[in-house]
């Protein structure tokens, strides 16, 4: 049975979000792709898949923008069966260490990556609740968000943002778990060539990674007992 799927951060053709959109369209689902600015490649997909692809513009750093997008979508969709929070931000100083990085950049990264995902969940929760199946929220995290496994001295803003997203996932799991109508996980998607460069040593293209995740997500839909932070291989990962 086809499902209604929404994926944030889908505006980069070589990125994971765009390729998740593509994989779900290829699987026959109806997909909502959210973007902050126009994406020509998404428009090309729209021409091919027509009514099965909805492109929704919103700025997840703005509660008003997210709520307006939710109001708009509620006029077209009666429910959402899957929400993938993929949108992320990194600062210009992401690769710098503590003494060289501008720490004022951290706030925006955390706000977009972690708080932004929560804004989206809150605004679109009424549509998730209307699903005929267990509605699933998958927050795209990273091994860089694991506090216990941290080994880096850079990626400060990114790591802090993903750790915050992981905490948000646990808090919302506790919030939703008694009703068992909405389930939630955070997932490390693997090492991916999200820049699309052939010399990138990461083993997975975004297109390959997207299909691994698509298959994994459906396996986890009704799992309310397992660990909340998992890898793309369905292995538990430490917070």
TrEMBL record:
Superkingdom field: Bacteria
Position of the signal peptide: none
UniProt GO cellular component terms: cytoplasm
Coiled-coil intervals, chain numbering: none
Classification via SUPFAM superfamilies: NAD(P)-binding Rossmann-fold domains
Gene Ontology MF terms in the entry: oxidoreductase activity
Name of the molecule in the record: Short-chain dehydrogenase
Organism (species): Ruminococcus flavefaciens 007c
